[in-house]
Specification:
The structure holds two protein chains of two kinds. Chain A is of the alpha+beta class. Helix content of chain A is about 35%, strand content about 25%. In chain A, α4 packs antiparallel against α5 (about 115-125) and α4 (about 85-95) crosses α6 (about 125-140). The chains are: A alpha+beta, B alpha+beta. Chain A: It is an enzyme of class 4 (lyase).
Chain lengths: ~250, ~260
């Protein structure tokens, strides 16, 4: 399916403002500070940081208002962002622009990548393969967001959603837990039907691994990803095309 | 299988395989033509009822399961031309060379030997074909294995027993096409080869099929199976069909590489 750009010069804009630039800018900034919770990683961002997070679709903002701001500059609007585990780990491990702290009692402990990985593994089943899929697409500079509204794991955009519609609905299938993520034909049928209704193509990311120990982020090196598009084939539509081809030949 | 005795109408142009100047019909083709009231099948002194043919298909002993039959009907009713996977449409090209797969002249002689005596009847419809039913399939080995099924009293619904599965694997392999169920031990092959609707279709020179069809059951197909199916099919793509609640759906699984964006 061809990318569906939302307005006339969107494609041009996307070429002139590649996502990789946003990542570079984020890497040049001082570290973002965030806090770990069992369901999300929460950070405070100033307006520049928010702009960058928004432009690469990482995190979901919610406003807390200037009174609750802990920033020294009271006039600046501060936004709180919630990041998913994959998003937070990507910013920390790949872009190295995020620090994640854990609050325990009155203390704050800085989590290193290993500890963060283990905590996230603990609180989210399948974190290792979801993260692999997320980072696989992000490294190709696709924008990846949650696919919850579409019954899938992720949706992937070529550029910011204000410029282009998502092209792919992504389902992650680890080969060692295949049935957990795609357990029947009716499940797949439902997803494909929904994808069609929202004009996206279903992309399966098949994950294989050579080692089963996923205690550390280094295990990612033993994982491999294969991309597969799934499309429904409609015999009623194709027979007329084929008839015409046969008659012409 | 059935051998056509009286020819009428155009169905024969793209249904049935030619062996030694006879046109033979597989069980799903018999089912389709009888549904269209284009065929009567005689077995001994009586003609077979639709339900008899359906029972044969449901037994699964003739290389086509009920699921596969539903898929066959769906496409056939839309005008597609369908053969069993890698079964030649016509042996006229075979006679100039000896093929290794599927059918051979040995099968033909055994078929003639097993034909039962029949009565011919006139057909009232324009499209009417008449055929003689034979309990054998084209491959002599298959007929012997059919006996094995009854002797060992294998039941096709008790699929949990691995011994039964193992025996089924051997039986199915000899048909040259499987019944499309997903068992890990067996060689997985497509069930049908499909050609686009084409009024100029020639059995002597059909060309390559547009795609092959693999019929999947409960679980969605895994990546390794898809890759194997596509790799072993001489460049002909494989489409996956699934039947659920009476509906037939077709899916294409294509390996892609998402582009790296700027």
């Amino acid at each position: 399916m061809e990318p569906r750009w939302k307005y006339l010069k969107a494609k041009q804009f996307a070429l002139e403002n590649p996502i990789s630039d946003v990542y570079r800018q984020m890497q040049c900034m001082p570290y973002l500070k965030s806090f770990f919770t069992p369901t999300a990683v929460v950070l405070e961002a100033n307006s520049l940081q928010s702009e960058l997070l928004n432009s690469c679709c990482i995190g979901r903002p919610f406003l807390i208002g200037p009174q609750a701001s802990v920033s020294s500059n009271q006039s600046e609007e501060v936004l709180l962002y919630e990041l998913g585990f994959e998003e937070a780990f990507f910013l920390s491990y790949e872009l190295k622009c995020l620090q994640v702290w854990q609050k325990s009692n009155q203390e704050e402990i800085l989590l290193n990548n290993d500890s963060m990985w283990q905590l996230m593994r603990l609180h989210k089943h399948g974190f290792s393969y979801f993260y692999l899929a997320y980072s696989h697409l992000r490294k190709k500079n696709w924008l990846v967001r949650t696919g919850l509204q579409y019954g899938v794991h992720f949706v992937a955009y070529r550029h910011h959603p204000s410029h282009v519609h998502a092209e792919y609905s992504v389902v992650v299938i680890p080969e060692w837990e295949r049935e957990m993520q795609m357990n029947s034909w009716s499940h797949m049928q439902g997803i494909i039907r929904l994808c069609g209704n929202v004009a996206k193509t279903l992309l399966l990311l098949h994950i294989a691994r050579t080692e089963s120990d996923d205690q550390h982020p280094q295990c990612l090196e033993s994982y491999s990803v294969k991309e597969m598009e799934v499309k429904r084939w409609l015999p009623e539509k194709h027979r007329m095309q084929n008839c015409e081809t046969a008659i012409k030949s | 299988m059935a051998k056509i005795v009286t020819f009428k109408g155009n169905h024969v142009k793209n249904t049935g395989i030619v062996r030694d100047s006879h046109v033979l019909l597989q069980v799903e083709e018999i089912g389709y033509l009888m549904q269209r009231e284009a065929l009567t099948v005689l077995n001994g002194n009586s003609s077979m009822a639709m339900m008899d043919v359906y029972s044969l298909i449901m037994s699964g002993n003739y290389g086509c399961t009920w699921e596969a039959f539903k898929v066959y009907l769906e496409l056939k009713n839309l005008g597609y031309i369908i053969s069993r996977h890698k079964v030649l449409w016509s042996d006229s090209s075979m006679k100039s060379r000896r093929p290794n797969d599927g059918l051979s002249n040995d099968g033909l002689s055994s078929l003639s030997g097993h034909l039962e005596s029949l009565e011919l009847r006139n057909e009232t419809t324009h499209e009417g074909l008449q055929s003689e039913f034979s309990d054998s399939s084209i491959n002599q080995d298959c007929r012997m294995l059919n006996h094995e099924i009854t002797i060992n009293d294998l039941k096709f619904d008790s699929l949990d027993n691995p011994n039964i599965l193992a025996s089924k694997n051997i039986i199915n392999l000899n048909y040259g096409a499987t019944n499309g169920l997903d068992f890990s031990m067996r060689v997985i092959k497509p069930m049908f080869d499909v050609f686009s609707p084409n009024s100029n279709f020639k059995k002597r020179n059909p060309g390559n099929p547009d795609f092959s069809l693999y019929i999947s059951s409960d679980l969605p197909i895994d990546r390794v199976t898809i890759e194997d199916l596509n790799a072993n099919n001489n460049g002909v793509p494989v489409t996956i069909a699934t039947v659920d609640s009476g509906r037939v759906s077709f899916f294409n699984f294509n390996e892609v590489q998402l582009p790296i964006l700027p």
